[in-house]
Amino acid sequence: MRDTLDSFENLIGGKWVAADDHRPNVNPSNTEDVIGLYASADASAVERAVAAAQAAREEWAASTPQRRHDLLDAVGNALAARKEEFGTLLAREEGKTLAEGIGETMRASQVFKFFAGEALRQAGDLQSSVRPDIDVEVVREPVGIVGLVTPWNFPIAIPAWKIAPALAFGNCVILKPADLTPGCAHVIARLLDEAGCPPGVFNLVMGRGSIVGEAMVNHPEIDAISFTGSVATGNRIAEICGRMKKKVQLEMGGKNPMVVLDDADLSVAVPACLNGTFFSTGQRCTASSRLIVQSGIHDAFVEALTREMQALKVGDALDPATQIGPVVDEKQLRSNLDYVEIAKSEAAEVIGGERLELETPGFFQAPALFLGTDNTMRINREEIFGPCGSVIRVGDFEEALAVANDTDFGLSAGICTGSLKYARTFRRKAQAGMVMVNLPTAGVDYHVPFGGRKGSSYGPREQGRYAAEFYTTVKTSYVFAG
Ligand SMILES: NC(=O)C1=CN([C@@H]2O[C@H](COP(=O)(O)OP(=O)(O)OC[C@H]3O[C@@H](n4cnc5c(N)ncnc54)[C@H](OP(=O)(O)O)[C@@H]3O)[C@@H](O)[C@H]2O)C=CC1
Ligand SMILES: O=C(O)CCC(=O)C(=O)O
């Protein structure tokens, strides 16, 4: 059967380079469905990609804003025009539902089009010197060659929101997508190639993180690394980049709190928590994994959320009726199931969470709610990254805020309340990069900064105009005009 599968190769220096090894891209809804064989390169491919980027960098850095705009705009248009096709591929390789896959493809399209505009809007800053007859000019220049290491959980949006600003600001790119979901990254590479991206400006190197990723992070000619993924890998990358004085941007985990106060509207709070905790199978760094609920509303909230959770249809991601797709792979499913056992051993009451055997061989899990938990438990301190949420009962707003902030992470934090006073205080005091009021903690806009505090993020923010901080370096020049 493997002989009949298509092979998908790396794009290096404008050529599709056949790799010696390939790995199957398997559908997590049905492990008998193999999407194709994707290149699994070794470190020599990184060397070739760096050489190609070095050859291209000067010309691309000097290219006109119009040229960069047109390239990114073309990719944005192509993604939008073919959103069903690419969204279906996304659902097939990652396990998001069809609607989520198509939505994420549209988000990638919007990101490309946003940064197409940003390429035209680059501005410098002309300042008066404190000394006579001197002009001071501050400009942003490209960083150079940027290495992008991306995760499996947003396989088209995250590559998009790293590639688009990198290219818009005149950098050359080497992308290493997650081993589990190379298909969407390959789509972006094809679209960039078809849109006339000059050879070496964008390079795709698929392969294992421990080989290709390591080689990129350690390569002295790669000037900056942008990474999204686990805390362990992020910490390792930070250490190496720190030692090498390399620019680095890390987006890692979350243990995001969602506070539900007594005065919350249940018709708002329950859908927000259902979405934030379980949609995308909980595989979002912005997922609401700690539901911090005030005593007066606790029982009604738990009863309503349990009812809604149990009504969610878990199934094949490609079935339009499915609301919760599979877990991404066996390893992640085992880890989730281990956390269900940990919850029981920590004396939580567990509703759901069992492995489901459906018509196709896949990695299905019933959504899980852990009740009667407290914030010291492992299930409330460690990122699970599955369809699991804990309920922590609190007495008042002050306790809710303290519990929300009592975590090593600080990505997203939410509150459901009818009180302007509590919403305002929460927005000010939540130790998180993003705060949501009467909205799920997950699901963000594409044109504003994304990122967190504490153990969640490191380095400048991603997305929106703030992306310029990472993908450019500032030059201040002085001219004596006397
Ligand atoms: N913040 C987020 O959005 C995400 C968080 N996670 C968390 O991480 C856990 C594990 O997921 P996993 O996919 O293993 O996460 P990883 O951090 O291992 O993977 C993220 C990316 O880093 C690459 N990588 C792995 N090792 C290295 C390395 N030594 N040097 C450079 N790059 C490397 C991976 O490649 P490869 O795929 O080939 O290993 C992948 O492209 C999840 O359960 C979840 O808790 C995971 C994904 C996203
Ligand atoms: O919640 C979102 O919209 C984005 C989440 C995300 O980027 C992530 O989980 O890595």
UniProtKB/TrEMBL annotation:
CDD domains for this protein: ALDH_KGSADH-YcbD
Keywords on record: Oxidoreductase
The keyword Oxidoreductase appears for this protein: yes
Domain Aldehyde dehydrogenase: 16-476
Signal peptide as annotated in the record: none
One example GO MF annotation: oxidoreductase activity, acting on the aldehyde or oxo group of donors, NAD or NADP as acceptor
Pfam assignment, any one: Aldedh
UniProt keyword Phosphoprotein present: no
Active site: E251
Family: Belongs to the aldehyde dehydrogenase family.
The protein's name in its UniProt record: Aldehyde dehydrogenase (NAD+)
Organism: Tranquillimonas alkanivorans
Organismal lineage: Bacteria, Pseudomonadati, Pseudomonadota, Alphaproteobacteria, Rhodobacterales
